[in-house]
Amino acid sequence: MQLIDIGVNLTNSSFASKEREVLERAYAAGVAQLILTGTSVQGSEQALQMCRELDESGERLFSTAGVHPHSASDWTQDTEQQLQGLLKENAVRAVGECGLDFNRDFSPRPRQEKVLHAHLALAVALQLPVFLHEREADERLLAILREYRDHLPGAVVHCFTGEKRALFSYLDMDLHIGITGWICDERRGTHLHPLMREIPRGRLMLESDAPYLLPRSLRPKPKNGRNEPAYLTEVLREVALHRGERPEDVAAHTTACARAFFSLPAIQESATF
After folding, report:
1. What's the predicted TM-score (pTM) here?
2. Is 256 inside any structural domain?
3. pLDDT tens for each residue of 212-223
4. Which CATH number covers residue 146?
């Protein structure tokens, strides 16, 4: 039984000098492949470098390249060219993290939208899937995506935390859905429980978003309070519970989905939880 973590922030400073240990724990837990999230040009370059340095086989670690909407104001004339170069690297399998965040508004909304358009145009030109971020902006995200969707090979709404209306709108546009430890949060994630049965097989993927979103249901909890890809098994169990499926079945179809979406190679080894 294998899992694929489609979103881990391994370049985060909390993992500094511990990356190999974190990956070994992930592999031991059955997380066979991981997508390292790029949230800036520099962070995307670091993620790519980690793929090269920490995965000699070239089969386990892959990355994305993009600029997070929080940093949309940092976009310059050179950014698009820099990202285009990164996105042509074999280990880089998706455009992003990009999108809209109208919850925190760290960058002006018109700027966020302009930068999202630029990412989507890159994805169409290079025929790469898109790794999307959205907070309190599903209607605008859908409106912008509608201009590009017919020409995109795929798009996943990473760390979905929205309501039924947003989920159905994303599914109607043939988008994929990424679920994190948010679903394990009894304070703010319970609305996701009944929605799990609404996501068809082939559209659902799992992610840790580590070091963020430590599953609150995890026992025992790590003393450092930091999430790791190894804890993706807790997300798996929670998703399986609310889908009414065996964890092994959810692991199988979410892994197959992620492998197809990101064009990942098959890993022959098996792992048990």
Report:
1. 0.96
2. yes
3. 999 999 999 999
4. 3.20.20.140
